[in-house]
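Bug #77: duplicate submission created two jobs. Keeping one. Sequence:
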Amino acid sequence: MAFYDPWTIFFTNSLAPLGYVRITSIRMQGVLLLIFVKCLHLPYIRDLQTNYTRTGLFGYWGNKGGVAVRLSIHGHLLCFLNCHLPAHMDNTAQRLDTFRHILHTQQFTGNKAQAILDHDLLFWFGDLNFRIGDHGLHFLRESICNNRFHLLWDKDQLNKAKKTESILRGFQEGQLLFKPTYKFNLASSDYDTSGKKRKPAWTDRILWKVKEQVQDGGSGARCSDLNHPIAVTLNTYGSQMEYGISDHKPVSGTFCLEVRVGLLFFVPLL
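Kept job's structure:
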């Protein structure tokens, strides 16, 4: 434990009394991914692998990029991908290109699910850095102060990209019913008051994608939900506004995974 980072120590100490054990982790500078599993599921974990892609400084620096963990649990292949994508308002295309690059370069060994999108279920989360375009700073802050978040959804760059970009087809996300998580003054719940006055944005996100199934016989038709091996239900999705040591507010989500052998639970923490 002496060589672990403070986050690993904190979550290990917090989750161990609840019956969870850390089975793997991967870190790329500030991008950290920890996987904890309840002890009762440990006999059913197989094919545990990690991977990473650096995209900062033309691929030489790990301040941007993605880290991934893949595993098989009860025979179902799951992948968890934590990304830190390029910043700034005008870099939507660069963010999407970086995501494509991560999906293309990360390959796992074995005969099944060698690519990230080949897995039965993918969780994609992190500081994805998508911004809210078009609206001015005053309108943004007034909408947020009055909890009128729905006025901002159609200008959110990730929401817009999901409608047009094939690489995002099938990704799902809960409604953004919490304040944008960027950019805050340190140790404060006030949005940026520096000279730059960065516009608030939902930069920190959690999405998931269930692999499309096809019926036997080569028809190409999708299976019905009743026949699908995995069903995902989002229980909670929100931000932790009390956190103050970063200019971001962390986002958390709780999910129920229903598989053919029973129920599993996963809580991604950013």
